[in-house]
Amino acid sequence: LQDVIKLISSRVLKDDVLDIPPKTYNRRQVFLSKEQVRVYNSLRDEHMAVMSSGQVVTVDMKMTLLLRLQQVLAGYLPVNDEEPVERIGKSNPRIESLEEWCEQSSKQGLIWSRFRIEIDDIMKMLGPKAVRYDGSITEDQAARNKAAFQAGDVQWFVGNPAKGATGLTLTQGKVVAYQSNSFRLYHRLQSEDRTHRGGQTDRVAYTDMCGVFPDGEPTIDEKIIQNLRGKIEIAAAVTGDGFREWVH
Q: Is 241 exposed, middle or buried (0-12, 13-18, 19+ CB in 10 A)?
């Protein structure tokens, strides 16, 4: 089918037709609290014991472990559902780091998160300087929030990539933070391009919040970010024996 289509079609890339400044990427290290380290290590060791027992470990089991560990890195107790509901400890290092990052920027920007409770905490932290864009609001409110951001009425657009990764033009955004990443490469690529499209005149800077242990040792965040930036699906990356390197 591809051979047939080639005869009557041509492929043009975005870079071929749009004069947009290139993207830049950064990592912002976030050191885990003692409570996070305890929960993370306990969860990891429990699953690694299962993997070492000779039991068949499927891709779904690996992805579930990554999700639970990601919930811990975001500052929430791991649960058996997609959305955590309870926070770890009284403070959240990741939210505090994001607050500091926001205070250092005078530009408008986007903040992406996959967890609703995390968006709740971000909105509480930013207050009237931000609008929300996820499944918790109506379509009418979502349209108003998008318009307010593009009009420059607010500084921050806080969204879930599953909701806002497509169909939005948010070229007012000059900086972007990924507070927590979706495991779907499609969500990552599309959410990056909400700001990087026709009409953008600045070099957009993308910052990934990356959890690390107090001694500087990496967590799964490092591998997740590395693969998504390398345009590799997470589910494909965890097949095979290399998964042990992800979780140490």
A: exposed
Assigned token pair, 108: 């408008």
N-term to C-term CA, the chain: 44
For 30, the enclosing helix (H) or strand (E) is: strand 24-31
Task: Please name the amino acid found at residue 78.
Answer: P
Closest by CA to 182, choosing from 168, 164, 194, is 164
How far, rounded to the nearest angstrom, does the alpha carbon of residue 183 sit from its chain's CA centroid? 8
Residue type at position 39? V
What distance in Å separates the CA atoms of residue 183 and residue 195, rounded to the nearest whole number?
Answer: 20
Task: Note the pTM of the prediction, 2 decimals.
Answer: 0.90
Q: Residue 210, CB half-sphere, CA atoms under 13 Å: how many?
A: 19
Token reading at 49 = 């014991």
* Of the candidates 50, 54, 75, 53, the residue with the CA atom closest to the CA atom of residue 64: 50
A 10 A CB-CB count for 11 gives 7
Contacting residues for 226 by C-beta, under 8 A, at least 6 apart = none
Which amino acid is located at 221 in the chain? D
Residue type, 79: V
* Tokens 């560990």 -> residue: 69
Cβ contacts of residue 130 below 8 Å, gap of 6+? 111, 122, 123, 154, 155, 156, 157, 158
Asked if 200 and 176 touch (Cβ cutoff 8 Å), the reply is no
pLDDT tens per residue, range 194-240: 999 888 889 999 999 999 999 999 999 999 999 999 999 999 999 87
